[in-house]
Amino acid sequence: MDLFIESLREAVRLLLRGDRYVLEVVLLSLRVSGTAVLLGVALGLPVGIAVGLRQFRGRGLVIALIHTGFALPPVVVGLFVYMMLSRAGPAGQLEMLFTPAAMVVAQAVLAAPYVAGISLAAVQAVPGDIRLQASALGASPLLALWMHLREARLGIGAAVVAGFGAVISEVGAVMMVGGNIAGETRVMTTAIVLETRRGNFATAFAMGLILLALAFAVNAALTRAQQGRTLAAERRTW
Prior knowledge:
Largest sheet: none
Structural class: mainly alpha
CATH class: Mainly Alpha
CATH architecture: Orthogonal Bundle
Distance between the termini: 54 Å
CATH superfamily: MetI-like
Low-confidence stretches: none
CATH topology: MetI-like fold
Mean pLDDT: 88
Strand content: under 5%
Number of domains: 1
Number of helices: 11
């Protein structure tokens, strides 16, 4: 218990004085995961919207594949990306292995199914007659689609948050394709593993506290947006 308390106190001191090592790792984590989520949104959101709005043969299979992506083992994704980017792989000439770019690719693969699956559910939950009403009032197909997506915006926001949560806390894939190189590819999760093995519990605690703070901040922002929409809807009914 004493080790836990002392490590926690030292972690707080590291955070308060802005330890350079901790700051570098945190900034790299945010840069890698933020870029990966943007790429995951670019890949997953159009798929989620298209599958959510359209009926076609094999749609059930596509949805099942998207949902299967929720359970993708990070180490398997890391292995796949490693083989693709290795010198003997099809993309070996890009020389991306053990760089932040390789970590972004691996995390984007993990984030895309979350974005696609949750945005798909959000789009499906919006009544289809919204687009019909908009079209009847003279709206163009593009504007009618925008109105439909506007009603699903909180669900789409939740999809982005879920994608970010999936990648910012991931360790297996980024360690395989990034190598956990100090100053280059070491992010919060891999640093926590390394510092714990070294017995530097204070530094590991500091990283863990920041991860928890990020998770809380992102989810608090989403909750506030949801509550704000609920209150606005209630006011319109008064």
